[in-house]
Design a protein that fits this description.
The protein is mostly helical. The protein has 3 domains: about 100 residues, Fumarase C, Chain B, domain 1 (Orthogonal Bundle); about 240 residues, Up-down Bundle (Fumarase C, Chain A, domain 2); about 70 residues, Fumarase/aspartase (C-terminal domain) (Ribonucleotide Reductase Protein R1, domain 1, Orthogonal Bundle), CATH 1.10.40.30. It is about 60% helix and about 5% strand. A two-stranded antiparallel ribbon has the order 1-2. Strands 3-4 form a two-stranded parallel sheet. The chain has a two-stranded antiparallel sheet with strand order 5-6. Strand 1 and strand 2 form a beta hairpin. Helix 2 crosses helix 5, helix 4 packs across helix 5 and helix 13 runs antiparallel to helix 15. The protein is elongated, with a radius of gyration of 31 Å. The mean pLDDT is about 95. This is Adenylosuccinate lyase. GO terms for molecular function: N6-(1,2-dicarboxyethyl)AMP AMP-lyase (fumarate-forming) activity. InterPro entries: Fumarase/histidase_N (IPR024083), Fumarate_lyase_CS (IPR020557), Fumarate_lyase_fam (IPR000362), Fumarate_lyase_N (IPR022761), L-Aspartase-like (IPR008948), PurB_bact (IPR047136), PurB_C (IPR013539). Keywords: Lyase, Purine biosynthesis.
């Protein structure tokens, strides 16, 4: 075989996966929270704040108190964490072969260089041994992950998901009165409105958004097996539970008082299950809209979908946004389900399976964010074809059979005679048959219904048989 260029050696490196390649622009905001670099910055943030917390509260007898300038310098180490810091940290980790230890050494280097910025009077070079004191790696990691996931959900995923859901709700309101043939089991059924069906999906999505918006993000900082063992031996006079709780809450997290070496990750499992459920409702929306497009109820604007529908059939405008969303939602759910199922188990006091698993959190949210973007763009390119809706309704007068049957039942209860076997009589007329308007009206006129009931049914058409569907859309504003 002819020798080929080794693509793995090219510079800049070629992305292995689509999120860092083809779809990079869409998911890039998550990089600031759920990338390896973002995780290391969060670890550095936790280490810095722990150092400040211990010195500010006088927890360690004999430890120097940091000046305002010292504290500002430390926090600036986190704020300015960029490309050079990422490279330096990677260099340190090549020596330590331990990611958290590399962060510890990186921070100590910054302490040593503090006098060049703050002058010789700074206390920072003297606080080396306070960095990472009483901490196992998981004290840093669990807090860093909680912070990064919280920031990613609240700062990126939740706003995108909310905006997309608002788009669905807006479409529902706009088309609240657009009568549409329903299709239960794929068969013509009692009419509804397009707006009401979209409102159902928006309502479901919003319920999941409320659950996700109320998520708890737990954290702990209690040592190698969660006992504060080294803490109480080294500094027996401190109230270590109060110190730990105050620190975790200072970070904006919820303190977990009972853990092994790791925070058990139950909050993560709960969150990922809720996000996966949101994904599945959104998947339902994508498949429903795809079907409405195939039925002709929605027309796609070519400019919004892309210039090429098919490589060989030039007439086609494919619903690619919704198909792309389906695929990415399925991948996201598979990852989220795995995370939720596996993170809740850790052998005895600690094993490292969660370390590898959690590195895929960003991938799971990346596919979910990509799907949301595709649905938004897909919805923005749709126009409702009112004529198609009307044609389908007019071709299915048999769907009025339910209304006639129930009106006969009600009339019978009210004392009318001759209303026997309403279901069977409508079944004989409509099952497996198409009934047109004249045929349905002839049948109604021959039933002997009370005059007011007959008038009401004779005025009914498939397009007006939508009950209070349009009113139900108002629940989106409740």
């Amino acid at each position: 075989m002819t020798a080929r260029v080794n693509l793995a050696t090219l510079t800049p490196p070629i992305a292995l996966g689509p999120l860092d390649g083809r779809y990079r622009k869409v998911v890039a905001p998550l990089t600031n929270h759920l990338s390896e670099a973002a995780l290391n910055r969060a670890r550095l943030h936790v280490e810095v704040e722990w150092l400040i917390h211990l010195t500010d509260h006088g927890v360690l007898p004999g430890a120097p108190r940091l000046s305002a300038a010292d504290t500002a310098y430390l926090r600036d180490v986190v704020a300015t964490f960029g490309a050079e810091a990422v490279a330096e940290l990677a260099e340190i980790e090549r020596e330590t072969l331990h990611d958290v230890k590399a962060v510890e050494y990186y921070l100590k280097r910054r302490l040593d260089s503090a006098p060049a910025t703050l002058g010789a009077d700074t206390a920072l070079p003297q606080v080396h041994e306070i960095v990472h004191i009483f901490c196992t790696s998981e004290d840093i990691n669990n807090l860093a992950y909680a912070l990064t996931v919280k920031d990613a959900v609240e700062g990126v995923w939740l706003p995108a998901a909310t905006a997309m859901t608002d788009d669905v709700a807006a479409l529902a309101r706009e088309h609240a009165d657009a009568a549409m043939l329903a299709r239960t089991h794929g068969q013509p059924a009692t009419p509804t409105t397009l707006g009401k069906e979209l409102a159902v999906l928006a309502h479901r999505l919003r319920r999941q958004l409320r659950r996700i918006g109320a998520a708890e993000y737990l954290g702990k900082i209690n040592g190698a097996t969660g006992t504060y063992g080294a803490h109480t031996v080294s500094v027996p006079g401190a109230d270590w539970e109060a110190v730990a709780r105050g620190f975790v809450e200072h970070l904006g997290l919820t303190w977990n008082p009972l853990t092994t070496q790791i925070e058990p990750h139950d909050w993560q499992a709960e969150l990922y299950a809720d996000v996966a459920r949101f994904n599945r409702v959104l998947h339902n929306l994508a498949t429903d809209v795809w079907t409405y497009i195939s039925l002709g109820y929605f027309a796609q604007r070519l400019s919004a979908q892309g210039s090429t529908g098919s490589s060989t059939m030039p007439h086609k405008v494919n619903p690619i946004r919704f198909e792309n969303a389906e695929a990415n939602l399925e991948i996201s759910c598979a990852l989220l389900d795995t995370l939720a199922a596996t993170l809740v188990t850790s052998r005895l006091q600690r094993d490292l399976t969660d370390s590898s698993t959690q590195r895929n959190i960003g991938v799971a949210f990346g596919h979910a964010l990509l799907a949301i973007d595709n649905v938004r763009r897909g919805l923005a390119g749709l126009d409702v074809d009112g004529a198609a809706l009307a044609r389908d309704l007019d071709a299915n007068w048999e769907v009025l059979g339910e209304a006639v049957q129930q009106a006969m039942r009600a009339a019978s209860i009210g004392g009318a005679t001759g209303m026997e076997d309403p279901y069977e009589r409508l079944k004989d007329l409509t099952r497996g048959r198409r009934v047109d308007g004249p045929g349905m009206r002839e049948f109604i006129a021959g039933l002997g219904l009370p005059d007011d009931v007959e008038r009401r049914l004779l005025s009914l058409e498939p397009g007006s048989y939508t009950g209070i569907a349009a009113q139900l859309v108002r629940h989106l504003d409740g």
